[in-house]
Specification:
The chain is an all-alpha fold. It is built from 14 helices and no strands. Helix 5 runs antiparallel to helix 10 and helix 7 crosses helix 8. The two termini are about 35 Å apart. The C terminus is likely disordered.
């Protein structure tokens, strides 16, 4: 018990020192760009929290970051690298918008929206399960498979937008889904809606599953000791498929929420890389579902706050990505976060 408390204190101290170090290093970057660091940080804070609408935007961006972080964290706990959250998110978005556009006109909006979300989750889970089947059945490296599947999903989205749906909507997008299909707005004057509630429910469900169910125990066990998992009666291959499918389902939900609850269509490059940012969020959170939400909120604040930099201090929004990268590198350098044990990597 005392050792655990000491470890937690050291980790908390490492996070604090890494945050201060990243602020100092990022300040030097701003100085090199000819910008007052205090003004730059103030602009980012204003951009993320300066009004109800901006805070709402930060909360909305938190949702896909948290869900794609779950897509990475759950397989990581099972000793698997899922770097395909981006593709699984695209798979969910494609499936959701296809359902929303293909439903008969007489079906009510809430039924269509619910169906689109469910099918989006199923599509994301299916996309992740493909990688799991390659891993369990052929011993394929899941890093390569999940990454390549991301390119396939993005390519399919581009083909649909530029081919099947050409002329039916705005250039570079799918047709707009019917106006009565959507997710309830919960904070007037902001984009915050039911999708954000679904994100919190998903995170809570993931935490309960990993901590309180036999499936969660099995996933954690194969990440720590596959031999112990076999002795406990688990099938390694089956759990590998489950891990990647469950992770893919969370990413698919992120894509479905975007097209149903936010954009109302599938847009080209609708994700600025949420699936890849989610990996960093998962690692900073120590792969713990309940910590993913605050870390995702921090990341979202950096991302949304960066949109205010060109207006206030005249530099690119890309500077916010520099802040994110420096923060992660500082955390790694000071040992505040560590990559999961990947002894299972490459193991069938």
């Amino acid at each position: 018990m005392a050792r655990s408390v000491t470890t937690n204190r050291r980790q908390s101290l490492g996070v604090l020192l890494a945050t201060l170090a990243s602020a100092a290093l990022t300040g030097l970057v701003f100085v090199a760009l000819g910008v007052n660091p205090i003004a730059a940080f103030a602009a980012m804070l204003e951009g993320a929290f300066g009004s109800d609408f901006r805070l709402g935007q930060t909360l909305v961006v938190t949702t896909p970051l948290a869900l794609t972080a779950l897509a990475a964290a759950i397989p990581f706990r099972a000793g698997l690298w899922n770097v395909g959250g981006e593709g699984q998110m695209y798979a969910g978005a494609i499936a959701a918008v296809s359902v929303a556009l293909g439903m008969p006109s007489g079906v009510s909006g809430p039924v269509v929206a619910t169906s689109a979300l469910v099918i989006g989750v199923v599509a994301g889970a299916g996309w992740g399960a493909i990688a799991g089947l390659f891993k369990a059945g052929f011993g394929a490296n899941e890093v390569i498979v999940t990454l390549m599947l991301s390119f396939v999903a993005i390519g399919i989205a581009q083909l649909l937008i530029n081919g099947v749906w050409t002329g039916a909507g705005i250039s570079g997008t799918s047709p707009t889904i019917p106006t009565d299909v959507g997710l309830m707005n919960l904070w007037p004057g902001t984009p915050v809606g039911l999708g954000e509630v679904l994100g919190v429910v998903a995170i809570t469900s993931a935490a309960i599953m990993m901590a309180r169910t036999r499936l969660g125990f099995g996933l954690r066990t194969i990440g720590m000791s596959p031999d112990a998992s076999r002795l406990a009666g688990f099938s390694i291959g089956r759990l590998q498929v489950y891990a990647l499918a469950i992770g893919g389902g969370f990413a698919g939900l992120a894509g479905a929420i975007n097209v149903v609850g936010i954009n109302g269509l599938l847009a080209r490059d609708f994700s600025p890389g949420y699936g890849f940012m989610g990996i960093a969020v998962a690692l900073i959170a120590g792969l713990r579902p309940l910590l993913i939400l605050p870390v995702a909120f921090l990341y979202a604040a950096l991302l949304v706050g960066g949109y205010n930099l060109p207006v206030e201090v005249g530099i690119s929004t890309s500077a916010s990505l520099v802040v994110q990268a420096v923060l992660v590198l500082s955390l790694l350098a000071l040992g505040a976060i560590r990559a999961p044990s990947l002894g299972a990597l490459g193991r069938s």
